[in-house]
From TrEMBL:
Pfam families: GGDEF (PF00990)
Full protein name: diguanylate cyclase
SUPFAM superfamilies given in the database record: Nucleotide cyclase
Organism, as annotated: Marinomonas ostreistagni
Superkingdom of origin: Bacteria
Keyword set, alphabetical order: Coiled coil, Membrane, Transmembrane, Transmembrane helix
EC number: 2.7.7.65
Reactions this protein catalyses: 2 GTP = 3',3'-c-di-GMP + 2 diphosphate
Transmembrane segments: 9-27, 138-160
Amino acid sequence: MSQFVLSKLFACYVFVAGIALAGFFLWSHQQLALQHEKVTQQLESYFLNVLEMPAEEQNIALDSVMLGVELSSKNGSPISLVSLENSEGAKLVYWGENSDSVSANIESFYLADKLGNQYQLHISFSDSTLAGFVYHHFLPVLGLLSFQLALLLLTLRILINRSLDGVFSGFMRELSVINLRHPEPLQADAFLGQFAEYRQMLASVNRVILSLARSREELSDINEELETRIHDKTAVLEERNEELLELNKQLSVIANTDALTQVYNRTRFDVLFKEHVAIATRRHTPLSILLVDLDDFKKVNDQHGHQVGDQVLKHAARVIQHIALEDGIVARWGGEEFAVLLPYFDLSMAEEKAERLRAEMANAVFEQQAIKVTASIGVAQLCMQETASQLLKRADDALYDAKGGGRNRVIIAYLENSHTQLEIDDLQAGEFIEVFDVALEPSQDEPEASQKLLT
Ligand SMILES: Nc1nc2c(ncn2[C@@H]2O[C@H](COP(=O)(O)OP(=O)(O)OP(=O)(O)O)[C@@H](O)[C@H]2O)c(=O)[nH]1
């Protein structure tokens, strides 16, 4: 049942209870009046009967009437005074103790006997006043009032409990709809707004909400400012990062490139060489290496000076790079010596490449001084189970042989027990192509270095 219905019911209850109480008193007084009238009529009738008796019987009869009055007063009708006077005012009968206190309620009745003699009868009832009524009907009145009071207290208790419950639950319901991201003051509920506790709580919460909204606005401003700052800082950082990346690239190129000739340096070549040996071993693909040494380079230095020697070295590197093209990885091995790694090149292909290189070098003319330099080249192909250093050693031996054989020549490194050439020659055509179809996984630095050399 809602609080609204309960409060209306309570109002009805108070109204009906008031009417019932008033009705009870009115009805009681009416009943008393009827009772008094009946008793009065009886007394009048008794006294008339007695007065019509012979004189000698009257006293006895009057005594018996008064005894009846006394008994009646004690047993039910609360008569407090009865007196009978003749026309001269002489009292024939008088019964009652505190006639003064009840004098206001004394009613008088006039009697006449058969002989026409006039008499005045006075009767007073002790319960005809409110105090007397309450005194004589103490228990019923007390019971009724207690019942009314208990009912009133019970109703009030239910109403108060339900009201507080309603206020609390209604308030919690209001709280649950607060949007903390966009706080707005809560509107008072039409019904709950009747309760002062609810209104007080609502006002407190609305104060908190307003302060939240203010804080939120302040936070939003701070946030905006911070975002702008972060954005600016990020832009600067990104710029710096790009610069660093570029510097890193340059550093990487510097670290991996020979400063004079701009081909790979020895350190980088060692890494690439080992990687390609590992790939070729794993995939059973051919891999060859050329070791290229300029002939009598000391003479160039001696005759034209060290600086011209440098220019010749740079030019020689470009010639080697041009011949190797994208097939090979070129590095300066040290001094006037270069290495060319040729992945997927078997010995005959490598030999052909070496021969072309040697011829190109022999025909090339360096600098204005028309310096001519030749090169000796040692060629080797990776054998089964061979390590990088073993392969290198064989190529170096071949180069040594080329020098010993008169320079400006290509020497192929064969192994007496090598299965390399044999195995590759034995490969079926299909197998060979298949081997070549395996894509090389080039090092990321390769294209960069190659491009540098070509430009
Ligand atoms: N200009 C210049 N010369 C260099 C450089 N590195 C090494 N050399 C010179 O290269 C020459 C190599 O001399 P050698 O080892 O005798 O070899 P070679 O004179 O070429 O004789 P063979 O190799 O036997 O044909 C030395 O004179 C070195 O000074 C360099 O970076 N720049």
